[in-house]
Amino acid sequence: MIARPRVCVRLSFLVGCLAASAAAQTLTERQVLHLLRESPYYRELQARVEVTRAERRRGTLYPNPSATAAFEGAGRTDFYLFEQPLPVNGRRRLLVQAGESAVAATRAEADYELRRLEAELRAAFQQLIYVQERRDTIDRNIGEIDELVRILREREQAGEGSKFDRLRAEHEIVERESERAGVEGRIAETRARLAGFLGELISQDAIVAEEILTPDETPPELREAMQSALVARGDYRSQEARLETLRIEEEAADRRRIPNPVLSGGG
Length: 267
Prior knowledge:
This protein is mainly α.
């Protein structure tokens, strides 16, 4: 009595799968990482660097000249005075260096944030591969049990098998289909995570991961990995650059004690 509803469910599910396959876009991990560099996340990280560069330029501009005009007495005596400060105490040069160091710190922070996003994106992509393979395994299992049900039904009709064995196998199919529905939910959730990283570059329902859960490279030794992290990690490089920025700014502030000459003239 449960065979017909089950067939209807499978037909509906097959139609849904065919419709999804028609719009699906198969992606590799390399392609997903490339799409991340075209996403709003990446543009925002690049904008941080440009904002820091623009803010730091304000303190390094050359001072503007000034002009003063005065008119006195009945005889109409006019005075004109022009002044130009000359930044020769070295403070501007230090501020330029401090700005470059601050930009380097922001760039290192952006690089660290990008690596963090890439790590989360790769984890979500591998999770999608896992749940896809899990779904395929369940589908194969359902097919095998379905064949077993067919054999048990034939044996039951021939009087060589029991109805209980067939019902137990059919119950196993129902459990596997319920498990598959749960896996489909996890696939949708993982696709949503990936779409959250990529923005409008790709449709959430169209993401299909193409690769297998087999590492393609050998992980480095612990000592080598730690040494590489100390050199390459953006958070460490950012802190070093910020310390250098503070040191240069302290030296630039000390140069305020040295007055700049002012070139003036008029008549």
